[in-house]
Amino acid sequence: MALAVAFIMGAPVAARVNSFVDNSIMPFIGVLVPSGDWKTATLALGPVNLGTGPFLAECINFIVIALVVFMIAKKVMGDEKGEKKE
User: 42 or 81, which is more confident?
Assistant: First the structure.
């Protein structure tokens, strides 16, 4: 049952984290990008253009989601440890 609840809650949490990263974190990073538009930022290596902006956004999304999941799991696991059955 817990897995089903976690699965159902995963999409809304991911949407909120994506919104947080896109609207709160990436504007600060956009200042560091020379063109100011981080979504289209690329790195030219000869004839190859690497899309660094979208990759950076996905990395930040992953880090924030992993941190949130870790904190929730730590809280849940800590509560389970406190309930010792003798």
Answer: 42
